[in-house]
Design brief:
Radius of gyration: 21 Å
Number of strands: 9
Helix content: 40-55%
CATH topology of the largest domain: Aminoglycoside 3'-phosphotransferase, Chain: A, domain 2
Number of domains: 2
Strand order of the largest sheet: 1-2-3-5-4
CATH class of the largest domain: Alpha Beta
Strand content: 5-15%
Number of helices: 12
């Protein structure tokens, strides 16, 4: 496969195969997609995506990339594609993740750069024709928590009465999502999918699952990070800063609830996804990330009187 992929890259770049170094593995994601770096002798480099067409549909990647670039969001330029083989030749945005930048830099400065991207996504990227992040889709995600985390990882499935309570919580969270302005949602907007590009705006990757959904979803994805836990006061300050940029007409208390409850939905889903990655796909390394997200869930459950009964339902299972 690598030989054929390398030959294809050379042909797309109009260079002799000998001018192209062997393809280098680049860290993949949780899907079946794999990424490689192709280097030329003159120092130029490119990213090659190999997405088996029987497992992954690359058309959404192409579509969303065009939407983002059309709004001046720095998604990688698509230089060539062969959808029948699932191969894409992409601009190389480098290896400098915002994950590392957050560990070493000023969070306020970095978050301001990211808010610029979020504001462009919410205000300028069309979500016409994208799947709706509706109640059905949100519920499918929430179901991952009892199905994979409680049922497979903890071996503590809900009783019939507890299932009814869970259904009530899901309905509450879905209503919260539906009450918000519906905008372009990246859906996996975290510090490992944002690239530091020097003085340029952040690069954005892994956007192929974009939907039209709640305005706070991507905000909470970046604030409730999988590697860094920010102090609550800092989180609330950033939430309010972004509210002033994209929805100043929304009352601060209502916005805070939107954010917290959206984060709760997402974090329950993520716990379920990480358990599924371990039990279904053999990727057990994701289990070590669960405790941070369990803490995020506990924190929100403690903050709202409407969620107290669900705290009793979930806390001993997290």
């Amino acid at each position: 496969m690598s030989d054929r992929l390398r030959q294809w890259c050379a042909a797309q770049l109009a260079v002799a195969e000998e001018q192209l170094s062997p393809l280098e593995n680049v860290a993949g994601d949780a899907s079946f997609r794999r990424y490689y770096r192709a280097r030329l002798a003159d120092g130029r480099s490119y990213i090659v995506m190999d997405a088996p067409p029987d497992k992954e549909d690359s058309q959404p990647f192409i579509d969303v990339a065009r939407r983002l670039r059309g709004a001046d969001v720095h998604a990688p330029e698509i230089l060539a594609s062969d959808l029948q083989k699932g191969w894409l030749l992409l601009e190389d945005l480098g290896d400098d993740l915002y994950k590392k930048a957050f560990e070493q830099g000023d969070g306020d400065v970095l978050m301001t750069q990211i808010f610029d991207v979020l504001e462009s996504q919410a205000g300028r990227v069309s979500c016409e024709g994208l799947p709706a992040y509706d109640r059905e889709r949100l519920q499918v995600e929430l179901d991952l928590f009892p199905d994979w985390y409680l049922g497979r990882q903890r071996m503590q499935p809900f009783t019939e009465e507890e299932q009814s309570q869970w259904d009530d919580l899901c309905a509450l969270l879905c209503r919260n999502a539906a009450a918000q302005p519906q905008v372009f949602v990246h859906r996996d907007f975290h510090s490992c999918n944002l690239m530091v590009l020097g003085a340029a705006a952040p690069g954005v990757i892994d956007f192929q699952d974009a939907v039209c959904g709640p305005i706070t979803y991507d905000l909470m994805s970046i604030l409730l990070d999988r590697y860094i836990t920010w102090p609550r006061a800092q989180l609330e300050s950033w939430m309010n800063t972004f509210r002033q940029r994209v929805a100043p007409e929304v009352e601060p208390e209502e916005w805070l609830r939107w954010c917290d409850w959206m984060g709760l939905q997402r974090n329950l889903k993520i716990i379920g996804i990480f358990a599924r990655l371990s039990h279904r796909d053999g990727k057990s390394g994701y289990l070590e990330l669960i405790p941070r997200f369990a803490d995020y869930v506990r924190d929100v459950l403690m903050r709202y009187s409407e969620l107290q009964s669900y705290r009793t339902l979930l806390e001993h299972r997290l």
